[in-house]
Task: inverse folding
């Protein structure tokens, strides 16, 4: 089975309506170019508000299902594509999540994934806003393949990638909002980007699975130093080879083909799943081995 993946690399401004309109235009372009599964970047409706801790930002959240999923669902049904969209979910008063919604090609919501790993770093104050996910790691059988969705900081955790691979995922999609703090970029910029891509390529290799990351792009100011989102959205195959890659400085609609039959081929040649020592991994459930 072969599917074409579309990644939307976009800049996000202050006006949510403009961001949604731009996303719809990019999605249509991806579909026009043959994409069947399309992924938007993390929290695409707004600028990355987590740069500051501000209670007023909770007003940006919405319920799921809600107005944005209804709009995206209509478009997915019209175009006959699968859509993955990352949204700020208002679950209940005082309870909010960073949530990715999976919409199948008939426009219906298949389910949602609530981001499990929540960072707290300079300019990334996500623990102030988001409750850690409680839906577990999920795989969805869409019209065009078995997909898993993990979100941004989840990219750094091999455990998450392994679990969805064991559930039968053929591709992991990572909606992302990651970039450089400008004062750090001269010394650490290229190394940070290389580490980000390399760890995800490692997940592809270790699990014999396709991986695709959709990042935002552009500089977003804040009362601090701001963030220069580095783009670099990419698709890699189960051997870790980058098949498609966007630039670091511009918006892009990236489309690439994935032959999901390669998952079985690669796993029979690199049988990492076969040779796992299930009897020896119990220590993984401990925080640290003192």
Result:
């Amino acid at each position: 089975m072969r599917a074409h993946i579309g990644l939307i690399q976009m800049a996000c401004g202050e006006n949510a309506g403009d961001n949604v309109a731009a996303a719809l235009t990019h999605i249509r372009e991806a579909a026009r170019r043959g994409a069947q599964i399309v992924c938007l970047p993390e929290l695409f409706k707004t600028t990355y508000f987590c740069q500051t801790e501000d209670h007023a930002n909770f007003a940006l959240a919405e319920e799921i299902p809600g107005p944005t999923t209804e709009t995206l669902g209509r478009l997915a049904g019209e175009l006959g594509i699968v859509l993955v969209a990352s949204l700020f979910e208002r679950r209940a008063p005082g309870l909010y999540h960073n949530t990715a919604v999976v919409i199948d090609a008939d426009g219906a919501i298949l389910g949602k994934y609530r981001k499990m790993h929540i960072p707290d770093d300079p300019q990334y104050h996500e623990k102030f806003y988001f409750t850690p996910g409680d839906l577990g790691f999920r795989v969805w059988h869409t019209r065009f393949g078995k997909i898993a969705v993990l979100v941004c900081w989840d990219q750094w955790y091999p455990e998450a990638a392994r679990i969805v691979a064991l559930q039968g995922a053929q591709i992991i999609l990572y909606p992302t909002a990651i970039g450089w703090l400008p004062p750090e970029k001269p010394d650490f910029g290229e190394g940070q980007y290389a580490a980000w891509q390399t760890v995800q390529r490692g997940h592809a290799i270790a699990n014999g699975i396709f991986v695709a990351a959709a990042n935002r792009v552009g500089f977003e100011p804040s009362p601090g130093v701001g963030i220069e989102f580095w783009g670099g959205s990419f698709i890699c195959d189960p051997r870790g080879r980058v098949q498609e890659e966007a630039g670091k400085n511009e918006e892009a609609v990236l489309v690439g083909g994935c032959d999901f039959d390669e998952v079985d081929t690669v796993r029979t040649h690199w049988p990492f799943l076969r040779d796992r020592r299930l009897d020896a991994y119990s220590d993984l459930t401990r925080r640290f081995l003192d």
